[in-house]
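Morning run. Coffee first, then this:
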Amino acid sequence: MAESSLLSQVRNSAFLFPGQGSQQVGMAAAAAAAYPSARAALDEADEVLGFPLSRLMAEGPEAALTDTINAQPALLATSIAILRALESRLGAQNSAPGELSARRVFLAGHSMGEYSALVAAGSLDYADGLRLVRERGRLMKQAGVRSPGMMAAILGLDQERVAAVCAEVTAQGGIAQVANDNCPGQVVISGDTAGMEAAMAALAAAGAKKVVPLAISIAAHSPLMRPAAEELQAAIAVTPLAPPQVPVIGNTTAQPLGSVEAIRDELAAQLTGSVRWSETLQWLVDAGVTTFVEIGPGDVLSGLVKRVARGATRLRIADPDAVEAYVAALANAAG
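And here it is:
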């Protein structure tokens, strides 16, 4: 991606890639119909995975697409298809990583979206990324069956207070921890049923505006994912990786992933560790980012940016109209 004119034409920008929960039937279909490069990305996903993922994405059924084993590769394929559509419209220019860093261009992905960011950064081959997230989804689903859990959104309390309550619950024998620190006042917690019920009651008593159980039985980003993380680590260890050509901000550290070793550590830690998204966005703001571009379906990440970087420009690119509008904006800026 460092050779794409997309990044060579922007400054002070962060490209964000959504994770599970943003999937929707029909995603990438319009892009695939409009751009051969996007169609090729979906065809490659079908070939690599050995089944018509792109048809499931286009036609559903929604329940099958939402299944974590399908949703994860579908989201990766969608983000890369849209990215390739952008690149095909902009042509190719050679840009050294140092030049892109000087332009303050960064990448970040929320949870599974981190794999999309690594593909975009030239660190992870697209085909390898598809295989990894398919396996990640399978292992997470398997862990959820073996050790069912819960997740819940906590609104109106800061991350420190939520983490403290979860620590108290865990000390009493349950399991509850911060899974996603999405933005100020929006924290997602995860754990086993007993720990989560105790944590939700305690957080409501502590003044949370809302405590909303999520419709999911997989306790992502919690210790219940440890068996999945251990098996996934073995797959990550044998997957070829390269240093990112563009800085990628890691979920569990909220810092740039500067080496192959750092990437392997991050991907292994991610399933049981917390997604420090609020800190990631703040890091990007502090680094000089003024434009955030969400590449993929939905608008979840754009909404979170609004809570952290109120004065920033927020763009969503998920269909041909948005692709063409962004290309035109870059052309006008250059002119």
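The chain is about 55% helix and 15% strand. Good start to the day.
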